[in-house]
Design a protein that fits this description.
InterPro entries: YycH (IPR009996), YycH/YycI_2 (IPR042274). It holds the Pfam family YycH. Residues 3-415 form the Regulatory protein YycH domain. The protein contains eight helices and 24 strands. The protein is of the alpha+beta class. A hairpin with a 2-residue loop joins strand 19 (340-346) and strand 20.
């Protein structure tokens, strides 16, 4: 009898232990684990769609050299831009040879030869270019970042020269093997014969259209993600966050470690996670992939974007994505920070995330054809700029203005600064 009591008592203790273990491991209601990894987040609301890396990597413009000092420029979304870029992406580039930039007269080459320049802005890691182009792996070349790709042919020579310009100093890489012929280059160049003619500036830094440039102006119906949606997206447990109102009218939500600053007047948030543990090494290509994955999980992409810049900032790396509409970048302005999505990473971990809460409804409200000045009208504007303004390029862009729930996108000329950032020409 005593043995049965002991057995029953032991069974009871085992059962109690199992029940206690259950409550220690799982929360009620539901079965979510109390222990969560430092990189996992709760399931988020359905917000913006996810995006593939390949759709965020493309040249900001394409210069077509027609020979005899004639040029034209295509921008994303234009039919001939897409035709040329898709054909180049289908070709194979192999056997890279390192050369010095100073060995060539590039201005003379632009004026005398037929070719295509693909401009990627402040720099694109080769490991990311390999996702969109048929670039054969090469240990010497793969660690570089490229700001420009140039394909050209010299009259009378069967070989096509394919150059990749490094962002690091006086270095260019030539693909000794490329499945392109001089005839292929001639066919690509022919797409630019009847488009707006451009002239190289006196200092050979940028191109000026000799005719007014046709650009569509837009009006879009806007909506915005809520603060609650962003909280649920970015915090492990939004229920334990508290908010603090700042003197400038912005609000900060924090769980004691992470913070979410909301500027309601700008419809913009800035999320920081300074306690994020380092999980890897600094690597430009890998950091960009991590940033894209982070946005996919936390808010998504509220429109079309392009990877516009990667920049080392002290012990972190800043990754910027530029908003695009109808193939043109949307500027950030003092009154409306809408055009850029910015992330900072330390050793492969996102520590800062800044973006707009605004997103456009799928149907455009209004669209009309406009024109940006070219030729002498544009030169006159440029001649009046202060001497301390350095122009690395000219870029048609959209200046945003929000009225109620309507976003007006007005075409403007933007100046490309030496660091790759864009500034409205009329504001200089």
């Amino acid at each position: 009898m005593m043995e049965r009591v002991k057995t029953a008592f032991l069974a009871f203790l085992v059962l109690c232990s199992l029940i206690q273990s259950y409550f220690l491991i799982y929360r009620l209601p539901g079965s979510e684990s109390v222990v969560q990894s430092g990189s996992s987040y709760i399931e988020t609301d359905e917000m913006g769609p996810e995006e593939r890396t390949e759709n965020l990597i493309y040249p900001k413009n394409m210069v077509v050299h027609l020979g005899e000092d004639k040029h034209t420029v295509f921008y994303p979304g234009q039919m001939f831009y897409d035709l040329i870029y898709n054909r180049i992406k289908g070709r194979t580039f192999d056997s890279f040879q390192r050369r010095s930039v100073s060995n060539m007269d590039w201005s003379a080459l632009r004026r005398a030869t037929q070719g295509i320049e693909l401009n990627f802005g402040s720099g694109m890691p080769v490991t990311l270019l390999q996702r969109v182009m048929q670039i054969t792996p090469d240990s010497l070349f793969e660690g570089e970042s490229i700001h420009k790709m140039w394909l050209y042919s010299v009259e009378g020579e069967p070989k096509v020269h394919v150059l990749f310009f490094s962002t690091e100093g006086n270095v260019v890489y030539e693909a000794a093997q490329a499945d392109l012929t001089a005839q292929d280059i001639g066919q690509l160049v022919d797409f630019g014969q009847d488009w707006v003619p451009y002239t190289l500036s006196e200092n050979a830094a940028y191109y000026i259209p000799e005719e007014p440039l046709p650009i569509v102006s837009l009006e879009l119906t806007m909506n915005s993600y809520t603060v609650e949606q962003m909280q649920r997206s970015l915090f492990f447990d939004p229920g334990i966050t508290r908010n603090i109102r700042e003197r400038d009218g912005s609000e900060i939500y924090t769980d004691g470690k992470r913070s979410l600053q909301v500027d309601e007047s700008q419809y913009r948030i800035n999320y920081t996670d300074p306690a994020a543990p380092p999980t890897g090494e600094n690597n430009p290509g890998r950091d960009v992939l991590t940033a894209i994955s982070f946005v996919n999980q936390h808010g998504g992409w509220s429109g079309s974007y392009r990877l516009s810049r990667t920049q080392d900032v002290q012990d972190s790396r800043r990754v910027e994505f530029q908003r695009y509409d109808l193939g043109l970048p949307v500027l950030d302005t003092p009154g409306l920070n809408y055009g850029l999505m910015t992330l900072e990473l330390q050793q492969g971990t996102v520590t800062s995330y800044e973006r707009s809460l605004l997103y456009a409804e799928p149907v455009e409200k209004e669209k009309r054809l406009d024109h940006l000045p070219g030729g002498e009208d544009l030169r006159q504007v440029l001649s009046q700029l202060p001497d301390n303004v350095s122009i690395a390029g000219l870029q048609p862009a959209y200046r945003p203005a929000l009225t109620g729930n309507t976003l007006v996108l007005t075409p403007v000329w933007a100046v490309v600064q030496p660091d790759g950032s864009l500034t409205d020409l009329s504001g200089l």
